[in-house]
């Protein structure tokens, strides 16, 4: 069996083929789910397929009947039927992030047809539909409300870990700015959110921006190490991972996956 922590070889065509075969396996699995209606790709999994390369992951929506949504969202059996999964967690009221055993990383959401009408996603394409004639893009409108109760340590920790993972892949691709945002912005926000949960009541913090006045209420955190700048994404990721391991109980699988990207020679483009 493939070791998810082993170097991929960073071979573009082989990796793209792996991603396409994983989508085919997911379609095969969803066809066996009576309530599944469609699989919609986003970004490079969607209309921007020409951008898919050896650093890409999978982003998709699964559209379901209302009575099937709970089962397909809470159970990952249909995902695991496509390929072995070594890590997954719920990252929104509608979705999860998963790492397959062979290193394929995926982020997906499970929507009903009614909910899809509140999602604005211009890169969406139909990968599979139980009704081949259905144009699922016709129901797009505005963003799904984000008010949900996941202000928990485990959520922030797992979001930070996956932000580091994606950010390091983009850094290897040469997307320094995008990598900086994932590592030195998104992951840092989640680390600050973790710290905020531990602060005593009455701490002066802006409830709408966790980064506001962080130098005052989170002064013990090595913020300079977390945010060393555009050319230092790897240094930042290493400092953030060390903080997460020291202050939390992160998934060993994801810790090793991030550490592999920090230690493997970068032979990518």
Automatic annotation (TrEMBL):
UniProt xrefs under InterPro entries: NT_sf
Name of the protein in its database record: DUF4037 domain-containing protein
Organism: Deinococcus rhizophilus
């Amino acid at each position: 069996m493939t070791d998810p922590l082993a170097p991929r070889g960073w071979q573009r065509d082989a990796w793209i083929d792996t991603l396409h075969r994983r989508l085919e396996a997911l379609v095969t699995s969803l066809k066996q789910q009576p309530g599944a209606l469609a699989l919609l790709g986003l970004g490079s999994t969607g209309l921007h397929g020409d951008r898919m390369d050896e650093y890409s992951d999978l982003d998709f929506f699964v559209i379901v009947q209302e009575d099937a949504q709970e089962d397909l969202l809470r159970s990952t059996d249909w995902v695991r039927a496509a390929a072995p999964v070594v890590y997954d967690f719920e990252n929104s009221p509608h979705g999860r992030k998963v790492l397959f055993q062979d290193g394929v990383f995926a982020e997906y959401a499970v929507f009903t047809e009614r909910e899809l009408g509140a999602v604005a996603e211009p890169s969406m394409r139909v990968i599979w539909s139980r009704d081949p004639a259905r144009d699922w893009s016709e129901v797009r409108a505005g963003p799904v409300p984000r008010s949900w109760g996941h202000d928990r340590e485990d959520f922030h920790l797992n979001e930070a870990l996956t932000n580091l993972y994606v950010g390091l892949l983009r850094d290897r691709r040469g997307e320094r700015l995008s990598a900086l945002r994932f590592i030195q912005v998104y992951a840092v926000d989640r680390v600050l959110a973790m710290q905020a949960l531990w602060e005593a009541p009455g701490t002066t913090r802006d409830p709408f921006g966790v980064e506001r006045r962080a130098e005052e209420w989170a002064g013990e955190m090595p913020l300079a190490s977390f945010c060393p700048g555009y050319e230092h994404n790897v240094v930042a990721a290493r400092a953030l991972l060390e903080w997460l391991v020291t202050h939390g109980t992160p998934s060993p699988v994801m810790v090793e996956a991030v550490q592999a990207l920090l230690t493997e020679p970068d032979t990518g483009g």
